[in-house]
Amino acid sequence: xxxxFAGSGTFGLPSxxxxxxxxxxxVLIVMQPDxxxxxxxxxxxxxxxxxxxxxxxxxxxxENVNTPAPIxxxxxxxxxxxxxxxxxxxxxxxxLALPRHGAVNLHGSLLPKYRGAGPINWAIIEGETETGLxxxxxxxxxxxxxxxxxxxxxxxxxxxAGDLHDRLADLGARLVTEVVRDIxxxxxxxxxxxxxxxxxxxxxxxxxxxxxxxxxxQQVHNHIRGVTPWPGTFSFLPTGRNKASLRVVIxxxxxxxxxxxxxxxxxxxLAAGTDGIDVACRRGAVRILELTPAGKRRMAAADFVHGHAxxxxxxxxxxxxxxxxxxx
Length: 328
Prior knowledge:
Distance between the termini: 51 Å
CATH architecture of the largest domain: 3-Layer(aba) Sandwich
CATH topology of the largest domain: Rossmann fold
CATH superfamily of the largest domain: Formyl transferase, N-terminal domain
Number of strands: 16
Largest sheet: 7 strands, mixed
Strand order of the largest sheet: 5-2-1-6-7-8-9
CATH class of the largest domain: Alpha Beta
Radius of gyration: 23 Å
Number of domains: 2
């Protein structure tokens, strides 16, 4: 079967590799144009492009895949199937109808739950203990097509969005190869999504990373896990006599074994030592284990305590509180 693969991030790489290694004919790879990234705004070759070059597979990087020139190039490839995984552009109706078997997409949730750009993040933020993968027939409505295959998986209690992303990517390779095989053998049994069970998972913004200490400890912990590594969890800690605030990224945390924060205000430091930094929430406390102060390297919370003379009674600012920030 002649397959066009459209994808740009690392999520689809294991599926692409599995198809090629399994003998499927990937005739063209479509990906986003190279973009500058990082502080130096350096343009780096992405993993999909690197794979295409190593395997000598033709590739295309259009600014808009739905314009005449890319459509003509895809038509010339005579695809039987278009496989889309984390591509980053909307696929228009002309391209959806182009392959003999249409277009299919690997999505990081058990649809119809968590339709949208951030299914992995929101499943963790919402405290789910199970998620999974869905391969769907693509339609013009986002993530609404018939389900061709699904694979559930447990979410670990301390698993971050980055951890789960990588694990789902590997699981997805097996699911995708099974669905592609069944398409070729005409052995699929599509089923419609139940629209009454739809939930949404919008794309995260940088501001979504800020901690709300007024939430219960388990919810704060879920939030930290769900926005790690991007956009990253952050809070502000007033320091010095002028109370300028230091922006701190929380890289790793856990629900504190302390059963209650007592009368402490949300965000108040309850304990700071070799075990980490216990911070009061509306109910219970979260223990910060690793963090990155603005302009510094990632470090153990114990090292931060030593370097900043952090003590019980100090307080991280609440979500709605503002102060002059250093390194914000």
